[in-house]
Amino acid sequence: MGAGMLGSKLIDKVWQGFTGNAAPRKGSEEAAEASMRQALAFAVFSAAVAAILQVLAERGTNKAISRFSK
Fold first, then answer.
1. Are 6 and 45 in contact (CB under 8 A)?
2. TM segments (predicted)?
3. Which partner for 38 in 25, 31, 34, 55 could form a disulfide, CB atoms 3.0-4.6 Å apart?
4. What does each of the 70 residues of the chain score in pLDDT, given as a tens digit?
């Protein structure tokens, strides 16, 4: 859960740093004003970050399990 919250904050900060606009999240005013290209780019970017965080969290969990199993 912590990784998800951290990832969300990271995505928002990086997106705002690159585009100068707030992230076009569902239900926000930015989402209503975002072009299809912006919305698609945000979706791809956030999915990539989520996948990376999922892999890192899984590796950390497996490492912890193997350490306690010995």
1. no
2. 39-57
3. 34
4. 777 788 888 888 988 998 888 888 777 777 777 788 888 888 899 999 889 988 998 999 899 999 888 7
- DSSP per-residue string spanning 9-54: HHHHHHHHHHHSS----TTSHHHHH--HHHHHHHHHHHHHHHHHHH
Q: How far apart are the first and last CA of the chain?
A: 27
Residue 55's pLDDT is what?
A: 92
Contacts 24+ apart (CB under 8 A), 9-12: 10/49, 11/45, 11/46, 11/49
The b/e string for 6-34 (b: 16+ C-beta within 10 A; e otherwise) is ebbeebeeebeeeeeeebbbeeeebeeeb
